[in-house]
Specification:
Elements (H helix, E strand, L loop, with lengths): L37 H9 L14 H4 L11 H23 L4 H24 L13 E5 L5 E7 L5 H13 L3 E4 L3 H8 L20 E7 L5 E7 L10 E8 L18 E5 L10 H10 L4 E5 L15 H11 L9 E4 L1 H12 L5 E6 L10 H13 L2 H10 L6 H12 L4 E3 L4 H11 L4 H12 L1 H9 L8 H10 L3 H35 L8 H42 L4 E7 H14 L2
Parallel strand pairs: 2-12, 3-11, 3-12, 6-7, 7-8, 8-9
Antiparallel strand pairs: 1-2, 4-5, 4-10, 5-9, 6-10
Helix pairs in contact: 1-18, 5-12, 7-8, 11-17, 13-18, 14-18, 17-18, 18-19
């Protein structure tokens, strides 16, 4: 192991940890060994890791100082890379566009290329010396640092039935300190909203006590006690607000299906969950109805003592639209809502039914970084998702009952069963759409980025076809995952791809059609050249948009996920971690880990 470069990646075998003494000198004004608090962690997630600025957010920078840590090339090396990219790009595009190549030569070249790719992958897979330890899947990469940290990164295909098995195998073989998955809390919560099977049993995670809202209950003549309740996703709109009031249970409106009575004025409304006869009764509607009666907050009695792991109140778009039509309000409900365990909730209801002194509640709304969006924003994002083709792609796949992202739930369940934490590292949808919106604007910077990307295309394409030994083989991994697809998945994937590409094609045609008609009407081009000009406009739009969309969807998220891995591994004092991400993010994260450490 000592002969290998520091920070090297092995795509085949588990390596024993390299133990080094913890650094003793402070870094960034913090004491050695002290984990960052929440504010410091958030700063780590926000600081871009570029050039010299990277060291300020590197979790083990103090451990690797003076050990020859690899950095990104700069100065003359950047100029050399640029000149190489220009030369390779000119040659590549000249041959592709202007040199006539007979069909036989093209087919011969493709066969030779396929054979060369296969031979290179066989060499990668079997030429590495055995270290006498258990194997991990071919789709798994490993980064080790001189301070002894290890990151096993599992590259997956989200619709592959092989992906969950790979994830479970890696977690079982490596026994990490923490598992990390390419989701944010909101998307993970949506995936958890499925029936719990008997086989899962205790592997299903439960909410942590610190994530629940404490409520102090006081009844005159009795000792005060505290109840912990699950929060609604919109509660953070009133962070640090203190709410005090009598708890009122309206027998005539026990489910909160209609506007509250005057008895609720200035009080806390107590209601049953759901509805007696299956009526439409989401949490948001109950909160709106209670507010109409003058309530300050809503307590909901759950139908079991087990609270949901995720925030409550996040319905479907159609459900939120129904609430908006019923309440004439497209924003968040105007008061906070809390879901109580069944036993405590029924105890409060019995107190309210008794005559005598009133029962009161006292709470201070906790801060919450859980992503939240109004129906207005959700509709805008849904339209963008649909017109981009991504929504159509996943929508068609789900119509065929193909499970998407099963590897993430498998990682969480495997980690929970082994008593290790599982955490999310991806950006939330609000940040994702904000970033995407900024990248599609044709600013000078974005135009230069697109030009640079196309100049680097031959080099990047070569690295994908013939991946370096320390990279994950994305093409080979996709082949292995594709072999595991059942026929139903292949049919769904092909139909979804066709539908998504058709929609995006029509949108591009519409853009080109409008610009071409305007040019013809102004006399800038001849009518007989209309189709050619429209094709060139579509091509230019694609050449600009593709690198920018890649930057927003993949590259910027690689950066954010790497920063999250660094910050959360420090906070959890993790020395060995398993990271589960899509194959498109794998090498971007590995490159950052090699350059800047863990």
């Amino acid at each position: 192991q000592a002969s290998r470069p520091r920070g090297s990646v092995c795509a085949r075998r588990v390596r024993r940890p390299i133990v080094h003494q913890r650094a003793r000198h402070p870094r960034n004004g913090a004491q050695a060994g002290r984990m960052p608090d929440e504010e410091e962690t958030q700063e780590l997630l926000d600081v871009p890791l570029r050039g010299g600025g990277a060291s300020t957010s590197n979790s083990d920078s103090s451990d690797t100082e003076g050990l020859g840590r690899k950095e990104e090339p700069c100065g003359p090396w950047r100029v050399a890379y640029f000149l190489m990219d220009v030369a390779a790009s000119v040659l590549f595009w000249y041959v592709l566009l202007f040199v006539y190549i007979p069909d036989n030569a093209v087919y011969t070249f493709l066969v030779v290329l396929a054979v060369a790719m296969l031979l290179w992958r066989l060499y990668r897979a079997y030429a590495m010396p055995s270290e006498g330890v258990d194997e991990v899947p071919y789709t798994c990469g490993l980064v080790t640092t001189p301070c002894g940290k290890e990151m096993f990164l599992v590259a997956t295909i989200h619709i592959s039935p092989r992906a969950p098995k790979d994830v479970e195998l890696v977690i079982d073989k490596t026994r990490p300190d923490v598992a990390m998955i390419e989701l944010d809390d909101e998307r993970l919560d949506r995936m958890r909203d499925r029936p719990v099977t008997a086989e899962q049993g205790n592997a299903v995670p439960r909410p942590k006590l610190e994530d629940l809202q404490p409520i102090r209950i006081t009844k005159r003549g009795s000792e005060p006690f505290t109840i912990h309740a699950q929060r609604a996703l919109w509660n953070a709109e009133w962070t640090d607000k203190r709410i005090q009031g009598d708890i009122v249970f309206d027998e005539c409106n026990s489910y909160g299906l209609t506007a509250g009575s005057d008895e609720l004025q200035g009080s806390i409304a107590l209601m049953q969950r759901g509805s007696p006869n299956g009526e439409f009764a989401p949490f948001a509607l109950k909160a709106h109805n209670a507010y109409a009666g003058g309530a300050e907050a809503v307590f909901i009695i759950n139908n079991s003592n087990s609270l949901p792991l995720n925030r409550v109140g996040g319905g479907s778009i159609t459900g939120d639209l129904q609430v908006a039509l019923k309440t004439c309000n497209c924003g968040f409900p105007p008061i906070p809502l809390l879901l109580l365990p069944q036993t405590e909730g029924e105890k409060l209801r019995d107190f309210c039914r008794q005559s005598g002194p009133a029962t009161s509640g006292d709470l201070q709304i906790l801060a919450d970084n859980y992503p939240r969006r109004t129906i207005r924003l959700r509709l805008c994002q849904a339209c963008a998702l649909m017109f981009s083709g991504i929504g159509i792609l996943y929508g068609v796949i789900q119509c065929f009952s193909v499970e998407v992202g099963a590897e993430f739930l498998a990682a969480e369940e495997a980690a929970t069963a082994r008593g290790i934490p599982c955490t999310c590292i991806d950006v939330d949808l609000n940040r994702f759409w904000s970033r995407l919106g900024m990248t599609v604007l044709p600013t000078p910077c974005n135009l230069l980025n697109s030009l640079w990307a196309w100049l680097a295309f031959p080099r990047v394409a070569f690295q994908v076809l013939f991946p370096p030994r320390d990279n994950i083989d994305v093409v080979g991994g996709m082949f292995l995952h594709g072999v595991s697809f059942p026929l139903k998945t292949w049919i769904a994937f092909l139909i979804a791809g066709f539908c998504a590409s058709t929609v995006t094609n029509k949108i591009l045609e519409l853009l080109g059609y409008g610009a071409t008609k305007a040019a013809v009407s102004s006399g800038a081009i001849k009518p007989e050249d209309e189709n050619v000009v429209q094709a060139y406009i579509m091509l230019l739009v694609e050449m600009y948009m593709l690198p920018q969309i890649y930057d927003a969807v993949a590259a910027s998220r690689d950066e954010a996920m790497y920063q999250s891995i660094v910050a959360k591994s420090r906070k959890m004092k993790a020395r060995r971690m398993v990271v589960v991400v899509g194959a498109g993010h794998a090498n971007g994260i590995l490159q950052r880990a090699r350059n800047f450490g863990l």
